[in-house]
Inverse folding.
């Protein structure tokens, strides 16, 4: 039996991950009545454990930095990019970037991190209902109505003037409208788990994330605690299918054939079963529509190579919430602020997508792995990979020179020809 429709909300949010909780806290702090429907029971496992320094500004805006900074997470001062054969590497120290405002980030276990953010939303006045599976939604003239199933199996109906879809890779509203579009040539599979006994950098480099480039794939190594490391392989879906082996066999083969990773694994022990995510790089045709705004991974998801996921999610959750707060003042179904949000969100994603798309190309990698900081080009890269998505002209023109040189290197030997992979 369907319970009577609840209508005492200004905004309903699907999903309590970083995008959803950021939106909920932002709106609740602005005095809005917010309902969050989260399908899982927190804490729950989630991938995407490496943050970027520019997350700090959002933590401060939300008033959650004190909780996050004292939770015992590993400090991340730099990102190391290594060739799979172990012959060459490039370390980007965030504290040494001339255009980078924040010097360090954190490596986090997402179960604990996401739980902190969601509890903070509650403490700020948002109502959070976990184990609440959204079943359907419909957009009416002056409201959005959702039906969801609670943990006891009962079905409920709720309504509000606006909906923020932060449903993550579930991409709830966009999938129902057939808006998901995969990036051409970037259907990937991620195979990952947590391990003990992995030999990770120490001393000044302790806490660094390691990104290891293989010939047609890449691997990550993220130190979460003294004896826990997240390790994953990202491989093209077509290449994985052609191998004709299991995910475990593909992962083991990558360890065996990638010296930069394998040499760190002689004493390693897998702490839990392997996880597999498939076909994860996509975009949606529209991020806003009358009374609906999509944030976080529900606005699109890209290869996690540069650890941009949580930053992009929280940034979109914050800007999206502010746009909805303004929309509530006017009651308009689709506002200029919502359209501006879509434009800005696509720009932020495009900044990282340019790096991701080129990282797989030989001529780009030959430049990237032989850093040359003339005119401060490396410093401009440092700023973006630290999470700066509002680019000053000083950063922008240096990036354009860098990408031009990478393109030129395809046709002329701008950089020394080295084996990359």
């Amino acid at each position: 039996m369907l319970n009577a429709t609840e209508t005492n909300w200004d905004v309903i949010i699907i999903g309590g991950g970083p995008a959803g909780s950021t939106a909920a806290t932002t709106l609740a702090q602005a005095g809005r009545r917010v309902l969050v429907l989260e399908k899982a029971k927190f804490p729950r496992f989630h991938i995407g454990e490496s943050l970027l320094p520019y997350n700090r500004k959002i933590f401060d805006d939300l008033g959650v930095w004190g909780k996050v900074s004292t939770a015992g997470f590993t400090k991340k001062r730099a990102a190391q990019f290594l060739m799979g054969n172990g012959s060459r590497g490039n370390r980007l120290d965030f504290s040494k970037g001339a255009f980078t405002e924040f010097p360090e980030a954190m490596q986090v276990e997402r179960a604990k991190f996401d739980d902190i953010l969601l509890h903070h939303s509650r403490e700020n006045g948002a109502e959070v209902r976990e184990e609440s599976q959204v079943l359907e939604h419909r957009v009416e003239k002056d409201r959005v109505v959702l039906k969801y199933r609670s943990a006891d199996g009962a079905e409920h109906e709720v309504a509000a003037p606006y909906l923020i879809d932060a449903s993550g890779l579930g991409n709830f509203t966009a999938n129902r409208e057939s808006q998901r579009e995969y990036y051409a040539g970037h259907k990937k599979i991620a195979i990952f788990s947590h391990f003990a006994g992995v030999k990770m950098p120490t001393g000044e480099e302790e806490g660094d994330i390691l990104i290891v480039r293989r010939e047609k794939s890449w691997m990550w190594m993220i130190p979460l605690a003294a004896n826990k490391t997240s390790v994953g392989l990202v491989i093209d879906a077509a290449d994985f299918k052609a191998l004709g082996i299991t995910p475990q066999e593909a992962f083991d083969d990558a360890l065996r054939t990638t010296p930069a990773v394998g040499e760190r694994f002689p004493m390693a022990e897998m702490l839990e079963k392997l996880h597999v995510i498939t076909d994860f790089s996509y975009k949606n045709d529209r991020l806003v529509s009358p009374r609906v705004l999509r944030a976080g991974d529900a606005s699109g998801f890209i290869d996690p190579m540069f650890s941009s996921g949580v930053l992009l999610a929280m940034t979109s959750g914050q800007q999206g919430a502010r746009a909805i707060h303004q929309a509530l003042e006017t009651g308009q179904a689709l506002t200029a602020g919502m359209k501006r949000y879509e434009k800005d969100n696509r720009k932020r994603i495009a900044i990282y997508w340019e790096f991701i798309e080129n990282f797989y190309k030989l001529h780009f990698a030959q430049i990237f792995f032989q850093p040359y900081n003339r005119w401060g080009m490396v410093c401009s890269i440092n700023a973006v990979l630290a999470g700066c998505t509002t680019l000053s002209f000083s950063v922008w023109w240096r990036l354009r020179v860098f990408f031009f040189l990478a393109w030129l290197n395809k046709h002329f030997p701008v950089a020394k020809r080295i084996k990359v992979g």
